[in-house]
Amino acid sequence: MAGDAREALLDRCVTFLKEGGFSRLSLREIASGTGTSHRMLIYHFGSRDGLLAEVVGRVEAEQRAALVSLATGTDDPLEVSRRFWRRLADPALAPAERLFFEIYAHALFDRSWTEPFRASVITAWAGPVEELFVQLGFDPPEARRRARLGLAAARGLLLDLLITGDRDVLDAAADLFAQLIMAPARP
Does the pTM of the predicted model rise above 0.85? Predict the structure, then answer.
């Protein structure tokens, strides 16, 4: 029962923090915004940092699960790439994506609570993307390079979109990138 209460509270915290971020919020303000007390947040998550680490884990897991579902029903790598970009570029995901980049910025400064994020932000994504490239016929070293390039490019395009809103230009750029990264490897 306590696990269910914790998960429900985490759901509310994720929703609340997606809307407005967290950098300027105290634990009491997060509690107020989620309809609970700061003591309940401490009970379930140990600290503000513990809560933020759990939020990070949840948001990242949701996005990785979505990536897996995008490859369903097609074996066309360009179509998978286009589906992935359309999902990333969906305005409904913008609050979660802003939260992702806010956390990323804190991770750059080695905030202790971002340790799980730093440990997984590349590796948890690179493995599945690398596997996809291997399935497409690229040898493992080439698949590894393309996976890392793909992650970096997708995050850069997404950050650009969130800042500029230049959807048409960035949709075209994402499509061009998909064509380039799927091109056969040069000998």
Answer: no
